[in-house]
Structures are given as structure tokens and as C-alpha cells.
Amino acid sequence: MLSFLSRHSSLLLMLSAIFGFIFPTISAVVFPFLPYILFFLMLFTLLGMKQHELINLLGQLNIWFYACFHAIALSVIACSISGLLGASSSMLLAISAVTATGSLFATPAIARSVGLDALKAMAMTIASTLMMPAVLYINFLLFQDSNFSLDMQSYIQRLMIFILGPMCLSALCYRLIPHNLLHRTHAKLSQVTIVLVFTFPFGLVGEFRKMFDRSFTHGLSFLLIGIALCILFFLAAFLFYRRQGLDPALLAAITAANRNVLLTYTVAGAYLGPEYMALMGAIQLPTYSLPLLVKALSKYCSPPSTNDMQNKKNSLQNHQ
């Protein structure tokens, strides 16, 4: 069963968001458990990675350059476009919070599910998350009044729980558990990680459904904004990194479009306003539709294999 779910994870991620929208009551029940699920998702993902390689990646400038692009450059682009289109100050605040947000902790599991480098995705996720408080603070200065303060203590606690905690536990597992046994069990753990990811779109979209119940037009407008943001993040990163190759471009694109809006809400929810809560739910469906898009782009943009070219050549010869 786990193998089936992992094999069809790209489609099931999108369906999870749809089912959460259809069943908002059940979605609301799942929502409070998401932080705990987040911890185990990080732990299971890290267990399949060599810690020293992850730390080495975090020491590379290109990872931190990506983090600056993820948070700073995309904040400037998204907020500038929104301002030119006449977005209200409260909507600009919500959009600026989304653009400051680090990548989903589920990104490595999603990257693995579409055949991309999960270790590099993890390094990019951690770097963009560590960039978040500074960029969020600056965005608040620009779009909020001066009477605010970020809950930095809460944010640091969450960094320790969701990043340092799983890293330390996984390092301990590598030290205490024989590597052969750990590698044998990791194949199953990697299937569990993608199953845990299903809970996020399902649990976060329930509040968005309530907006649709109050006003269909208002809900649809937020959905369109969420789709536009995801497309902007994805295309900007894909085009910027395309010269490095297809896989790096797709990895940057899916990492840029995946946003850990739940963590941002936990840290600064009191200052984000109601628009952010609605946008947090609206962005789920386009975000979790991206794995299907990545698979399609990878297939479309990849050069034909030797076997494909030979088969095509044989077919032409037979036709002649």
C-alpha cells in the first residue's frame, strides 16, 4: 500500500488539497496536528541523508545565493507587481509574508518523489528558512506600522525543534544503528515521508473553504492570487536557473514555489491579518499540483534517450 501511495504521490498530493476543501470539518481536525507531523517528516527525511554532506552543502555559497533569491528577490518581484496592480496594503502585507517564507520542510520528500536531488533540496530548504526572520522583519517594516514585534523566541524554538532536533536525532541514529540496517529501513521510511506530506494540503485548506462558503467571488479571487504567486515563483526560479541544466532548474522552481506558510503563521500570525490566513489556504492547491507539472516538464524538456532515438530510426526504416 505504501509503495502504491509513493508511486502515485504527485497525483495524490493534489487530491489531498481537493479533499480538504470538500471536507473542511475533517480538515480542521487535522490542522492542530500538523506541527507534530512536521517534526517526524523532517526526521524521516534526514535519516536518508548523510549529515556531513548536508553540512557541506550548507557551507556552499550557491545554496545561500538561492536563499537570497528565494526570499529577497522574489519578495521584490511579487510585491512590486502586486503594488502596480493596485493591491491593498493588507493584501501586500499578506503577499510579502508569503514571499519571505522559507521552503516547505516537505520539499525534500517531494523532490525525491519526482526524481530530483533531495539532499540539495534539504539544504535549500534550511537556508531559506534561516533567511526568513530577517526578510519577514524588513517586509513588515515596509507594509506594516511600527507597532509590532516578531516572536523571535518562538521562531528560534521552532528552528531548534524542526531542524536541529531531527538533525541531532538522525545523527544519533547513524551513530547507534548499523548502517546496513539503516539503509535497508530507509526505503520504507522514504515511502512514509511522502504519505505524511499528504496531511499538509488536506489540513491547511479547510479555513479557505469557509471563505468560499461566505463569498464565492471573494474566495475565487484569493484562489487566483494563490495560483498567480505559485506560477510567478516557479517560472522565475526555473528561468533563472535554466542555464545550469534541467534538473537544477526544476529543483529551484519547485523549492521556490513550495512555501512553509504554516511556520510563518505560527511565528507572526497576530500581525499578518485575515488576508494571510485565506491566502495560506488558497495557495495549497496550486502548490501541491506542482509535482505533476514538474514530471511533465521533465519528460517534455529532457533530450530523447538513445533507445528512443533508435526505436524512432527503426520505425522510419520499416516505414520506408
TrEMBL record:
Q: Does the keyword Cytoplasm apply?
A: no
Keyword terms, alphabetized: Membrane, Transmembrane, Transmembrane helix
Q: Looking at the keywords, is Endoplasmic reticulum present?
A: no
Segments passing through the bilayer: 12-43, 63-85, 92-111, 123-143, 155-177, 189-208, 220-241
- Using the record, list the residue span of the signal peptide; answer none if the entry has no such feature: none
Which InterPro entries does the record cross-reference, listed alphabetically?
A: Na+/solute_symporter_sf (IPR038770)
The name under which this protein is listed is Bile acid:sodium symporter
